[in-house]
């Protein structure tokens, strides 16, 4: 089977999904360049909660947290527990969960609920799909040579990731952080602190042995035949809900390859179910969906306050309001892209002229590579989402392969085994902004920057395929044209001090993946981002800033 057959098999059915027609509406101010989604009426019926009136934060709040992903949620909880009033600003919607409702778009046949104001999406299979423009949960930012996937909803990346929660090995951690962050402290204190709340665990045996995870067992069998020992991954999944899916007590979601666009039944233990909920329960934190932050600056005069320019958005893209908020402490946690954009733009426009030369630098993809091989067993299942296993190869540059899933749209899809490769790689890009234009921030990724780690991951995948029966020995393909793990742009110890305080300013902090130096050492970054935020916010609160 060649790459063309693979691409056709994975993507053809999804590419044929059509859009419904509805009457046009009068023009309004919008957050995008497209008209309103023709499916808006359908979405109002399916998910009325995201169309409810949006709350507004006060004009001045002691602390503002921009974003609601892992770093933001940790920050919001610990600040609120300390008695500090916090406003969490999130551009996306706050989506509900229910065991039977059709809340999120399916990975197999996506629609506007899946994507942040796009008319097309090109996924791992590289087949463009038409979608309707709507405020969906996944933002795909396209730059020359690299697409970046990022969350756009309350809960951020925790809603759209695949739940893998792994601590890096010390030698890889130290290679990345270069002594700025002490691994033993993270291992002994902050990784356990995050695990205590998010409760990651490996896939239980009864679920692993179900038909939905036949691909996981086949993946493990192939890597064992190639001489590797698969290690079980920890994941933040609610295994009893997955059992409900298997037993017919819930609408199928995680058991049929849904994850990248959300799990409607709450099978993924996302931040809405823990950190963010606990922060709100203190009475000191408010979460404000539909609030996109466009710019940050210092308030003129001696107040020391920060100003935050906000656009309030309906999920249809309609602009409801623009305003400027102020705060005493500003915590940037809008993800690597969002945080880097705000800082790079603020320096370029003179809003924060004292930001140093490291702002925008040190951005990496975590060495992400999507890989595929043929299935070599007769047992075919529905390719459940949770990643059961991983292997580590150190024959060259260290690379981990994790068992992955292929959302099934055709019978061929269920005969493919997917892997996520994560290579320890030092290739880095940078963000730049030309203030004479519209203030757009661009990623400058080195031409051919992914070639080295792409080939390293392909080498390991092909080694596994070579130990398969002769008819199945070719690895199908490898793709490093995108990342779902963007890291860097405001790197700790360079753009900030050792605890995320932005150099050149007081009470301005970076609390998310932008602080991570481009890689988390052959593992998914969510656990490290969360633990680093726990470490940094503890010191910020302890020291009074």
TrEMBL record:
**Top-rank taxon, per record:** Bacteria
GO MF annotations, alphabetized? cholesterol oxidase activity; steroid Delta-isomerase activity
Question: What cofactor is this protein dependent on?
Answer: FAD
**InterPro entries reported in the protein's UniProt record:** Cholesterol_Oxidase, FAD/NAD-bd_sf, GMC_OxRtase_C, TAT_signal, TAT_signal_bac_arc
Q: What is its EC number?
A: 1.1.3.6, 5.3.3.1
**A Pfam entry, by short name:** GMC_oxred_C
One GO term (biological process) = cholesterol metabolic process
Q: Name the NCBIfam families on file.
A: TAT_signal_seq
Family designation: Belongs to the GMC oxidoreductase family.
Protein name (record): Cholesterol oxidase
């Amino acid at each position: 089977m060649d790459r063309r057959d693979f691409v056709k098999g994975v993507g053809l059915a999804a590419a044929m999904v059509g859009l419904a027609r509805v009457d046009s509406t009068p023009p309004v101010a919008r957050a995008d360049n497209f008209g309103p989604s023709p499916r808006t009426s359908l979405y109002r019926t399916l998910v009325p909660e995201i169309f409810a009136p949006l709350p507004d934060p006060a004009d001045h709040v002691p602390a503002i947290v921009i974003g609601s992903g892992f770093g933001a949620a940790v920050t919001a909880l610990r600040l609120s527990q300390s008695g500090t009033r916090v406003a969490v600003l999130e551009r996306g919607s706050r989506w509900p969960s229910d065991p039977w409702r059709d809340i999120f778009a399916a990975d197999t046949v996506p629609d506007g609920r899946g994507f942040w104001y796009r008319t097309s999406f090109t996924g791992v299979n590289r087949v463009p799909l038409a979608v309707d423009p709507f405020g969906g949960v996944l933002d795909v930012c396209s730059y020359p040579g690299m697409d970046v996937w990022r969350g756009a909803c309350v809960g951020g990346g925790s809603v759209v990731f695949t739940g893998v929660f792994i601590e890096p090995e010390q030698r890889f951690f130290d290679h990345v952080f270069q002594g700025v962050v002490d691994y033993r402290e993270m291992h002994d204190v902050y990784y356990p602190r995050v695990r205590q709340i998010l409760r990651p665990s490996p896939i239980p045996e009864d679920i692993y042995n179900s038909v939905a995870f036949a691909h996981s067992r086949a993946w493990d069998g192939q890597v064992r035949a190639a001489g590797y020992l698969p290690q079980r991954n920890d994941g933040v999944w609610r295994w009893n809900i997955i059992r409900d899916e298997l037993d017919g007590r819930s609408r199928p979601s995680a058991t049929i390859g849904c994850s990248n666009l959300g799990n409607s039944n709450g099978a993924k233990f996302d931040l809405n179910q823990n950190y963010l909920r606990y922060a709100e329960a203190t009475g000191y934190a408010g979460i404000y969906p539909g609030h996109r932050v466009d710019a940050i600056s210092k308030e003129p005069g001696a107040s020391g306050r920060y100003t935050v320019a906000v656009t309030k958005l309906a999920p249809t893209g309609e602009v409801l309001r623009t305003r400027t908020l102020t705060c005493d402490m500003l915590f940037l946690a809008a993800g690597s892209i969002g945080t880097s954009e705000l800082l790079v733009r603020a320096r370029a426009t003179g809003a924060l002229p004292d930001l140093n030369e490291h702002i925008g630098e040190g951005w990496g993809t975590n060495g992400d590579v999507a890989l595929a091989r043929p299935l070599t067993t007769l047992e075919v299942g529905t390719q459940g989402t949770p990643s059961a296993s991983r292997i580590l190869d150190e024959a060259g540059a260290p690379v981990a392969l994790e068992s992955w899933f292929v959302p099934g749209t055709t019978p061929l899809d269920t005969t493919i085994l997917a892997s996520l490769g994560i290579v320890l790689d030092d290739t880095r890009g940078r963000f730049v902004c030309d203030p004479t234009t519209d203030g757009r921030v661009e990623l400058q990724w080195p031409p051919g920057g992914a070639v080295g780690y792409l080939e390293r991951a392909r080498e390991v995948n092909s080694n596994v395929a070579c130990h398969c029966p002769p008819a199945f020995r070719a690895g199908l393909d490898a793709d490093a044209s995108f990342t779902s793990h963007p890291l860097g742009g405001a790197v700790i110890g360079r753009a900030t001090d050792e605890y995320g305080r932005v150099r050149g300013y007081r009470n301005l902090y970076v609390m998310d993946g932008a602080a991570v130096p481009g890689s988390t050492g052959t593992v998914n970054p969510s656990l490290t981002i969360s633990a680093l935020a726990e470490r940094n916010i503890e010191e910020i609160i302890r020291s009074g800033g």
